[in-house]
Design goal:
Pfam families: ATP-cone, Zn_ribbon_NrdR
Distance between the termini: 55 Å
Function: Negatively regulates transcription of bacterial ribonucleotide reductase nrd genes and operons by binding to NrdR-boxes.
Number of strands: 6
Structural class: alpha+beta
InterPro entries: ATP-cone_dom, NrdR-like_N, RNR_NrdR-like
Keywords: ATP-binding, DNA-binding, Metal-binding, Nucleotide-binding, Repressor, Transcription, Transcription regulation, Zinc, Zinc-finger
Number of helices: 5
Largest sheet: 3 strands, antiparallel
Radius of gyration: 21 Å
Number of domains: 2
Strand content: 15-25%
Order of helices and strands: EEEEEHHEHHH
GO molecular function: ATP binding; DNA binding; zinc ion binding
């Protein structure tokens, strides 16, 4: 790590701490040449492979934006969306992959969204899974009802 003050090519880590969200590490460094102290923040990179083949960094904001459309008019707060986006990012990072397809992210969104709001889940699933007919909606609703019945008997 280059010193931002004198551009010396090396620095010494004097303190390391994880950030509040646990997804990054804050390091306090000192330059052995000029003695200047500075802070760096390190995160593991996570890239998304879009359908077009373009690769871009993962963005919680994009997850929230996509889900926000499905939640329009529903009793879902921005805080709920932020928690959902964080849960999705954590689930994706737990796979250990540094690159992930948008399709995988969509599948990862479905579970937490279903727990958050079933109507928003159906809206998102209908677009994401390209429902073509009423039968697709009926099948999805039947699955939701079956899951509710299974939860009630537990």
């Amino acid at each position: 790590m280059h010193c931002p003050f004198c551009r010396h090519a090396d620095s010494r880590v004097i303190d390391s701490r994880t950030s509040d969200d646990g997804l990054s590490i804050r390091r306090r460094r000192q330059c052995p040449q000029c003695g200047g102290r500075f802070t760096t923040v390190e995160t593991a990179s996570l890239n998304v492979i879009k359908r077009s083949g373009v690769i871009e960094p993962f963005s919680r904001e994009k997850v929230m934006s996509g889900v926000r459309k499905a939640c329009q008019g529903r009793p879902v707060t921005e805080g709920d969306l932020a928690m959902l986006a964080q849960a999705v990012e954590e689930a994706v990072r737990q796979t250990g992959a540094s690159q992930i397809d948008t399709n995988e992210i969509g599948l990862t969104i479905l579970g937490p969204l279903r727990d958050l709001d079933e109507v928003a889940y159906l809206r998102f699933a209908s677009v994401y899974q390209a429902f073509d007919s009423l039968e697709d909606f009926e099948a999805s609703i039947a699955q939701l009802r079956a899951d509710h019945a299974a939860e009630a008997t537990e």
